[in-house]
Amino acid sequence: MDNDIKKTLWASADKLRSNMDAAVYKEPVLGLIFLKYIEDSFEEFRKSLKKQIVNPQDDLYFEDASDEDIASELEDHDYYLAANVFWVPTESRWQNIKNKAKQADIGKIIDDAMVAIESQNPRLKGILNKTYGRLHNGVRLGELIDLISSIGFTNKKDKAKDILGQVYEYFLGQFASAEGKKGGQFYTPKSIVSLMVEMLEPYEGRVYDPAMGSGGFFVSSEKFIEAHALEKHYKAKDQVQKLSIYGQESNPTTWRLAAMNMAIRGIEFNFGKEPADTFFNNQHPDLRADFVMANPPFNISDWGGDKLTEDVRWKYGIPPKGNANFAWVQHMLHHLNEKGSAGIVLANGSMSSNTNNEGAIRKNLIEGDVVECMVALPGQLFTNTQIPACIWFLTKNKIKKQKFLFIDARNIGQMISRVQKEFSVDDIATIAKTYHSWKQDQDYQDELGYCKSVSTEEIKKNDYVLTPGRYVGAKPEVDDGIPFNVKMEGLVEELRGQFLESAKLEKEIKSNLMGLGYEC
Known about the structure:
Layout: H1 3-17, H2 22-54, H3 67-74, H4 77-82, H5 94-99, H6 106-120, H7 138-148, H8 160-179, H9 190-200, E1 205-209, H10 216-227, H11 229-232, H12 236-240, E2 243-247, H13 252-265, E3 269-270, E4 289-294, H14 325-334, E5 336-347, H15 358-367, E6 371-376, E7 389-395, E8 403-408, E9 414-415, E10 421-422, H16 425-440, E11 451-455, H17 456-461, H18 468-472, H19 484-515
Parallel strand pairs: 1-2, 1-4, 2-3, 4-5, 6-8
Antiparallel strand pairs: 5-7, 6-7, 8-11, 9-10
Helix pairs in contact: 1-7, 2-8, 2-13, 9-10, 9-16
């Protein structure tokens, strides 16, 4: 989908938002976009079905069928169910909603439409937004419906789900910016998600995210499989079906957004019975996953750790009640099977802090040989926090025993706006290749200022600190071939010129002040 269209759509939707808080506005907007997608997919299949019914060469051909017969056949749910297409009841169809967009009770009309869709599609039960009737500005809601009517989710160039996925991804990023810090509850920058997926390579098995937000890791896992299908000589669709998706999220709005995100792509998922706190109401207590990927909220201080001191998950030490970082780490390790691997984004403090048992837990993780790789991230990757971050890669099936890889990626990435940076596709490929080369002993070499393979003994000498910069060293300055004395003469000459310019400006300023009757 064209970037200009996405930006125009967002600018228009954001204008319609008026004074409404972004956290309140995002679910109605994304819910309506989802409804439009369902309608477009439904209508596209409906047209295809009609062509088959009237085509004498097709198995579904109805000989001498009247218009009434054809209309009746098009209302048979079984066709749509067999094709994995959501059934849209008459009262929920977009044209019906658009025709009533300017009515005062349009919010209730949409709520009723959502209820009807859920009743006909068990996979959507409980995940559609049904709070439109509570929105006070029906006029703006009607304008939003007109705006979304301009989006077409079916064309020859793009698949409908890809277009919707692009719109969702773009809007989630924009909402994260609009919401500030709170946006981090549901959105992880795409380049971080892609990097973790490329490094972990979740081709098949159970994938789990205990702080799933909008489900970005699951979507990227599917995209990863599709991207690597040819080189692995398999059908991407068949391979995606070998992934079992498990997630958990405490925020009800975000929980529903994640479910819609999966439904868009036809991905089967298990997000538990309800939105719930991962630490206190674990929705998957018996799960032992092949892959765990997460970007949990950084440095949570009120996570209730004082009530969980005897928890079975704390194998490596009791996490401090004032910071949940190592509670997340141990929760993930607890849910890994004996061959599983995990990636978790945490604040940089987790790599070096010795506060309230954190140093002891980190020591136990290192000596337990479950830490495999540490990646230091550059600043400004996140739209909603300036806290420096890193990625921990953990495993219960470590190939290189008592060895650890450190990657300092702080100087990698490009600015995509005045305030935000991201990794390019090449950046992600470079970092992932470094990790896989080290892991498989294939052409890996330490690189000063970037990466280093380290033993447990060396980490021990550094008081069990896991900050990559401490091990990889400083990157050498590029030799430009200019002798030092020549370079210094040039710099001194440049400085001399700046001094002269400074003196000239000072003289002019004094002259101007004297003209105004001031002496200095």
